[in-house]
Amino acid sequence: MANGRIGVLIMSYGTPESLDQVEAYYTHIRRGHPPTAEQLHELTSRYEAIVGGFFPLRENTNKQVKGLEETLGREHPELEFVCYQGLKHAQPYIEDGVELMVKDGITEAIGVVLAPHYSTMSVGGYVKRAKDRAAELGLKIDFVLSYHLHPKLLEALSNRVERALGKFTDVSRDEVRVIFTAHSLPEKILEMKDPYPDQLLATSNAIADRVGITNWQFGWQSAGQTAAPWLGPDILEVLDTIRKEENVKNVLLCPIGFVSDHLEVLYDIDIEAQALAKELGIHLERTESLNTDPLYMETLSDVVFEKLKGAAKLS
Fold first, then answer.
1. Is 183 labelled a binding residue?
2. Mapping DSSP to helix (H, G, I), strand (E, B) and coil, where does residue 55 land?
């Protein structure tokens, strides 16, 4: 195993740090094509709706990076782990994180994404960018690809489902439809035999088994606005269908594909889905985000350390 400092590149999608950065952020997402004035207004309005004058989204990721470094230090005091941040669509970019590790004298690193489920279009893209820059700079780096069935992750998510079910005081828990959700991706991943949908269902099944629920299903959310079809049905469509066709009146959303509070949770669920639920006469709740839950920090610490041990055995 490595001697000296071990770098940990913590990768995530990224988010603007303030409202005035929204245009640059979405220009990067759109591969250099700025959003139209109408699109920019809609996007900015969504951020304004969830944050008002305070912009907490980036701070969530910063706290997770700090939390993982502290957890690694506590659980493995014999080693010195130094955590770096690398974002897909905002600074510091993934390449910036790799470059900073090399500048700091790091020679061995592990990369991990703040997303438990692997897809070639999500986690695979992060890994490729980090791997390419590391190869150019001569940094030895290995990657955690998924951790969707880690026991501590399942425990943290199951605890949230249990707590949230307690908010439905007027009905039995069996009458509450639990819907697990994750970010939709283009349908073409199905042709690629991508593991993303299966991993999400595996996590959903495992949580349902732990909590003892049978009244559940899966739904997609936050699809991109592109010409190509995305995985569905969308959660808004699901809510409409189960209310009108099955007379479901109580719904708990559990966004297992997201590990912190950001736009897809605070707007797409808490505002957009909640507004539709009220219109349909549905009592809608959602589970709390993982954020810096100690069990999630320990999950990341475990998978980083296991990957480091595995890399040591191969070298």
1. yes
2. coil
Measured CA to CA in angstroms, residue 171 lies from 176, 180, 214, 238, 250 at distances of 8, 20, 16, 21, 8
Q: Is 118 annotated as a binding residue?
A: no
Tens of pLDDT along 130-178?
Answer: 999 999 999 999 999 999 999 999 999 999 999 999 999 999 999 999 9
Pairing of strands 283-286, 140-143: unpaired
Q: Residue 54 above 60 pLDDT?
A: no
Residue with tokens 């690629």: 192
Which among 39, 24, 25 has a CA at the least distance from the CA of 226? Answer: 39
126 is in an annotated binding site: yes
Q: Is 47 annotated as a binding residue?
A: yes
Classify strands 108-113 and 177-183 as parallel, antiparallel or unpaired: unpaired
pLDDT in tens, 92-120: 999 999 999 999 999 999 999 999 999 99
The answer to whether 210 is annotated as binding is no
From CA 62, how far away is CA 297, in angstroms rounded?
A: 13
Q: How far apart are CA 105 and CA 268, in angstroms?
A: 42
Are the C-beta atoms of 236 and 276 separated by less than 8 Å?
yes
Is position 264 annotated in a ligand binding site?
yes
Count how many Cα atoms sit within 13 Å of the Cα of residue 195 in the half-sphere of its side chain. 14
The type of residue at 35 is P
Q: Residues near 21 by Cβ (< 8 Å), separated by ≥ 6?
A: 90
Task: Count CA atoms within 13 Å of residue 303 on its CB side.
Answer: 26
CA angle 115/208/252 to nearest 5° reads: 80
Phi-psi region of 221 (alpha: psi -120 to 50; beta: other; left: phi over 0): beta
pTM higher than 0.90:
yes
Domains and CATH numbers, the chain: 5-147+292-314 (3.40.50.1400), 151-286 (3.40.50.1400)
